[in-house]
Amino acid sequence: MIYLDSAATTPLRREVLEAMWPYLTGEFGNASSHHTLGESAARALAEARVAIAEILGCRASEVTFTSGGTEADNLAVKGIALASPRGRHVVTTSIEHEAVLESCEYLRRQQGFEVTYLPVDGLGRVSAEQVKAVLRPDTTLCSVMLANNEVGTIEPVAEIAQVTAFLGVPMHTDAVQAAGVLDLGVRMLGVEALSISGHKLGAPKGIGALYLRGRVPVEPVMHGGGQERGRRSGTENVAGAVGLAKALRLAESSRAERVERLKKLRDALIGGVLATVPSAVLTGDPGNRLPGSASFCFPGTSGEAVLLQLEQRGIVCSSGSACAAGSDQPSHVLLAMGIAPEIAQTAVRFTLGDATLAEQVEEVVRAVGEASEAVRAIVR
Ligand code: PLP
Asked: Comparing C-alpha atoms, which of 251, 369, 254, 376 is closest to residue 313?
């Protein structure tokens, strides 16, 4: 099998499992317990927090562990908006992940917030000028993703954060797809909140983290025993936190080489597909996109049928966001980019990972040519 769906999830890295193993077995203590086992777990949790803080360039106390990217996004969007005395207005974009969009919808539906969904251009980009034009004295939060999960477009978050900072509006960025490949320095980005998720970079599913700048008030989403400084109650996932820290450290230590390698493979895939299937359309920003992301529409086919044909040839990829799987609606991201629904239905996304090989890319290009031809023959 050739796995080109790394944006959906990645396998657990051996080194990560090894780092986690003691806390899943002998050192199984509850980090809140006041005995040696508990203290050992609390120490591991503290070390994981420091390691993540070093990569984000923040204080360890500003890192909150969550159950993943979805919870980190929920805590950032709902938590910051609800705790803010500024008012009841939030700003986001129309191409965010559902974890952000649905959190905003909750604020609108249940909490009387007004939500401004900024449109994007044909490449999936939003600009700092657009944000500037909609910020108001009662805006409590601006949330713009660092990179899009479906089309890979990288957003100008640092520029946007300059605009929000000028007006004192907290800025959140969903960095779930960016972690391990883009610079996550929160000072450089200028954000007050940033979400990451373990399973996109070789840590297990069910662990994530939210950076929250010290002085930003936040209303907890999860209520209970007051763990994570009261920001996120629930017995801490010590092994998960250790795994997330290890995975992030490994990814960061080789980031430059990995990014170069991924870009080369991605460009070979994009070039190969466009040459083999002349009607194919690359979606997202051709220049400023995630290094492992190659997303296309294949007009005249059906995305699902192409996926099936590829899977029969041993290639696993996706039609877009795995999180919207099961829905046969065209992607909200592609529609927001102005792509017609019948074209958006033909989307196929390839996301490369560290295990992807050059010869696999060649095989995929060949298979894409055959698969799209086979589907066209059926559709005709
Ligand atoms: N945000 C983005 C951009 C994502 O791609 C995903 C998952 O695909 C999430 C958030 C949700 O993360 P998790 O699967 O850890 O809940």
From this structure: 369
Strand ranges inside 37-85, DSSP E: 63-66
- Listed in sequence order, the DSSP H helices in the chain are 14-24, 36-56, 69-74, 80-83, 98-111, 128-134, 157-166, 186-189, 238-253, 255-276, 303-312, 332-336, 341-344, 358-379
Query: Cα separation of 327 and 316, whole Å?
Result: 18
User: pTM to 2 decimals?
Assistant: 0.97
Tell me the two tokens of residue 225.
């025993």
What is the pLDDT, as a whole number, of residue 327? 59
pLDDT of res. 378: 86
CA gap 285, 295 in Å, rounded: 10
Alpha-carbon span 341 to 263, nearest angstrom: 29
Instruction: Give yes or no for a contact between 324 and 234, defined as CB atoms under 8 angstroms apart.
Output: no
- Residue 99 near ligand 1, beta carbon < 6 Å: yes
- In the numeric block, the tokens 């950032």 are attached to 76
The whole-number pLDDT of residue 323 equals 47
Distance (Å) from CA 153 to ligand 1 centroid: 15
Which residues in the chain land under pLDDT 50? 323-325
What pLDDT was estimated at residue 321? 60
Which one of 74, 153, 177, 318 would you pick to mutate in the ligand 1 pocket, going by the greatest count of ligand atoms within 8 A of its CB? 177
**Tens-digit pLDDT profile for residues 58-87:** 999 999 999 999 999 999 999 999 999 999
DSSP secondary structure letter of residue 248: H
* Lookup result for tokens 């890979």: 152
